[in-house]
Amino acid sequence: MALTKAPAELLNLDSGLTITGTTPYLVIGDAGAEDTKIVFDGNAQDYYIGLDDSADTLLIGRGATVGTTAAMTVDSSSNIGIGTASPGAPLNVTSAYSSGAITTALKLATVGGYNANAGTALDFGSDQGNYSTWLTGRIAAPRTGDNWGGSLVFSTNDNSAATGLATAMTIDHSGQVTMPKQPAFSAMVGSTQSNLATGQNVDIVFGTEIYDEGSNFASNTFTAPVAGKYQLSYFVRLDAIDTAASYYYLMIKTSNRNYSPIYAGSTFGASNPTYMSLTFSVLADMDASDTAKVTFDQTGGAGQVDVNDGYFTGILVA
Question: Residue 8: pLDDT band by 50, 70, 90 thresholds?
Fold first, then answer.
């Protein structure tokens, strides 16, 4: 059955309209170049859903005229705009500009409770059609602290499973930032290394690991997991120094270059000191799979120097 009315005439229904059938539908318009709409006639405020035929967009807005105070736009590419009539992405949300102030364009929140560690998240995924549960990353905002505090938690997929997220960075309610996956290590001399040979590079043995985030330190050597700038530092105590030596090198040796402080034997005094502690630090550029270690080189004098204590540390900073 078809209901038709002459142009400019209205069809008034005193009660509901039910459309039945196998595939019921309602068509508004006749494929002509004109706007069409459904108006919700309220007591204080009207709203509409309408087609802006000239722009080929579907609008939801306030009022009774299509294009007036539109709140949401669906364009011909199925992009959805909230607060904008020209969405540039599948979902484009904008808010009114306020000079010198931040305006909220999108808010995610829970309702019904506020227990510790509860909150909302923005998930990122890939190939939603074939792998509906696949997450590549997440930004979560759980409640922390005793009162109004909250944190931002950034997670990435650790390659263990479709939903295998691991925390990469947390900004807590006091503004403190932690990055538990940031490559970092600290190792110490575990036992005495005696009578270091002269005339050659000798690796300083750091046999006891204190921590090794990412498992990149082994056999006295740090291997960079990614390219970046690494802060590398050592403290080494040398015993039985021979002042007759021409010089000593205690260098941080990396794949790209050597960082080589040099010490003349006379630096340590006129007589052989019982011990001397040497420290050095450098911000080194390293490529992925580059290595770094601490080596000792003595020219001249007797091979009598011992290493009884020391630390070798490093962290990716940029």
Answer: low
Q: Is residue 49 part of a domain?
A: yes
DSSP 17-68: ----SSS-----S-SSSS-EEEEE--SS--EEEEEETTTTEEEEEESSSTTT
Contact indicator for 185, 222 with CB cutoff of 8 Å: yes
**Using one digit for the tens of pLDDT, what is the confidence trace for 169-197?**
999 999 999 999 999 999 999 999 999 99
pLDDT band of residue 269 (cuts 50, 70, 90) is confident
Reference 290, options 252, 240, 241; nearest CA is 252
Tokens 């002459």 belong to 6
- For residue 31, tell me if it sits in a domain: no
- Rounded Cα distance between 102 and 104, Å, is 7
Query: pTM of the predicted model, to two decimals?
Result: 0.79
First to last CA, the chain: 71
Tell me, yes or no, whether 218 and 288 share the same domain. yes
**The pairing of beta strand 152-157 with beta strand 177-178:** unpaired
Q: What is the DSSP letter of 119?
A: E
Domain extent, residue 193, equals 184-316
51 or 3, higher pLDDT: 51
The domain total for the chain is 3
Region class of 209: left (phi > 0), else alpha (psi between -120 and 50), else beta = beta
* Residue 311 sits in the same domain as residue 190: yes
227 and 287 Cβ atoms separated by less than 8 Å: yes
Contact 223, 289 (CB under 8 A): yes
Query: How far, in Å, CA of 74 to CA of 58, rounded?
Result: 5
pLDDT bracket for residue 1 (50, 70, 90): very low
Q: Taking the CB of residue 44, how many other CB atoms lie within 10 A of it? A: 4
**Would you say residue 1 lies in a domain?**
no
Across all residues in the chain, what is the average pLDDT?
92
